[in-house]
Structures are given as C-alpha cells and as structure tokens.
Amino acid sequence: MQMLHESGISMQGKHNKWKVCDDYAIRSSFKRCGKKHPREYESCFENLDRVLEYLDNGFKWLSFQFNYLRTEGGGVFRIGQTGVPHAQETRLYIYCLETEATIYLLSMGDKDSQQEDIKNAKDLVERIERERAAEGATDENKPQESGQTGG
Question: Which of 67, 125, 130, 141 could be bridged to 98 by S-S, CB 3.0 to 4.6 A?
Fold first, then answer.
C-alpha cells in the first residue's frame, strides 16, 4: 500500500492494528491540495494520525470525538485541518471499515470544491462496497451516521 502523503510522515509501521488504504483515492485531489494548501494538507494528515492512534489503542470507530472529524453522509467522513493560522478550510475525506481495521483515503479538497469532493467520495464508497459485496465480504459494523461526530 503506497501512501499519498508526501511530507515524509510515514503512517505505515506507525500503527500496528489499523491500516490506511489509498487504492481508491482521487490522487489529483491530494496533489492539488498539497501544492495549493501545504500547511492545511499537513494538518489534515496529522489529525488522521491522531484518529489512528485512538483506534490502535482499542477505541471503536466513533466512540471518541474530535472537532475535526465529521460525517458527510453515505459512509463518508471528513477530517479537517486544525491549528493552522489564517487557514483555508481543507478537508480529507475518508471511509472507515471497522471490521477490516482499515481507513480508506478518498479525496481531499477545500471549500471551493466541497460539494464535488463529497459527491466523488460518496461514489467511491459505493464502489468500495460494491466490490466488497462482489467478493462476498460483509460489513456488519458500518459506521452509523446519525448526527455529527465532533465537538
């Protein structure tokens, strides 16, 4: 599994229970955000790392709250940037499969591309679920999306 994050932060090996998969990621969105908003890009991945730390420590998906982690519906969650002065609002879109201990990176964008990013991320979740169903896999612990996860 090759990571999209090009800043030198390697998430592989850092987390021993949960893995990050970029097989379905819209790579151009990551490249665009990395160039256009490098500080925000970095912050989103640092926040993903915090989420992974909680999961690796035995917390169940959505049993914890971070103000930067919210649902967008359709199985899509977004991780926003934090701690960046004068930041452009930037979001990392993910899909979590708790039964496989995997977070799928989907896309990344800012306020200008938000609606398109969410639509594309939802389409990717549908594709992932279709392919898993075709392989005979089931996910009984699909994330619940009632309300907002954040605080």
Answer: 141
